[in-house]
Amino acid sequence: MHTSRFLIAFGALAISGWAQPSAGVAGPVTGFIFDAQSGAVRPMLGIPGAAYLGNGVAIGLDAASVAPDGSAALAVERGGKLMLYTGLRNAHPAALAVAGAIPSPDRFVWAADGSAAAVYSSRAGQAQILTGLAQSPVAAAPINLSSLPGQVTALAFDGLRLIVAVASPDAGGIYLASASAGIQRIAPAVSPSAIALAGSSLFFSDSQSQQIFQVQDYAGTPGAVVFANDSGISSPAGLQVSADGQRLFVANAGSRKLAVYDIPSRAPVESLDLNFTPTRLDRFGDSSVFLLNVSGQGPLYVVRDGGPGKAAAVYFVPSPPHRRPLRSPIRPS
Fold first, then answer.
1. Phi/psi of residue 244, each to 5°?
2. Of the N and C termini of the chain, which has fewer Cβ atoms inside 10 Å?
3. What is the structure's pLDDT at 333?
4. For the chain, how many structural domains are there in total?
5. Is residue 64 part of a domain?
6. Domain CATH number, residue 81
7. Does any domain span residue 102?
8. What is the mean pLDDT of residues 228-250?
């Protein structure tokens, strides 16, 4: 189904909200995103199909990442200090410095429930696990990843260990990393580009072979098998597993298509044409909604999982000019 089919059907509903007075994050909020252009964490006001990006609730940031459920955000302020913002949906969100955090991380990954996360600094070659993110963050000892044999291209975090995708002609692949167990390669790949977790299995894409792999029992006795090897795979930029664990979503940057696979049968069940190039596939507040690109000059795009036996749908989210907020956004201290 073409994205353009939704532009006329739902665009007027979203645009009509622009003229209304800003109410901060009052009303329906699907989730929050980091807008790198404005250096702000912004809410998506409304629901997919009738939504737009609102004013920043935290501003003046160099980088940020929002928890999968939209309850909190990790952000880097000017100067490299890591901050935790909690209660984004509340009237008075709180900002707290993360003591002992590595400076200037540029990658962030969250545990599925948002209670813990991991950060990575490509400049320092270090990663770090953060726990207690509901109230009081605790930074564990840094994990040295500088010995990895290539470029880190993707990360995932299962709440205990970091899963790292490394691109290298000779020793690339998927690695497990933790402060206690060190670094272990569990699957070879030349150019892994995205990772998704599903219980005891993980899925990863390889842009060099144009394949999707499944690693079963990845934290125990890992075994990698080819999950998909069809002509629809083209430079995958993101992977996600549906909330019920039955479908795998693949955002293909090369073909500008969103592919959906049935996990038990490993068969493609749906393909959606996109009129933009997807650059990510991240959970966005609701467990059935995923982000497909970053906020920039054009609109944001999200996909909603229709559920078993139902079609997925792609929606655009306009980003109107900033209005004066009715309450002051949080600035780093």
1. -90, 0
2. C
3. 59
4. 1
5. yes
6. 2.40.10
7. yes
8. 96
